[in-house]
Amino acid sequence: MVSKMDKPEDGFELDLTFQHILKCVLKLTASEIDVYLALQKHPGIDVGRLSEYIGRDKSGVYRTLQTLMEKSLVERKYRILKNGGYRYIYYPVPLEELRIKLIKELEAWYEKLSEMVDSLKERAAHIPAEAH
Question: Domains in the chain, start-ordered, CATH in brackets?
Answer without folding.
Answer: 16-92 (1.10.10.10)
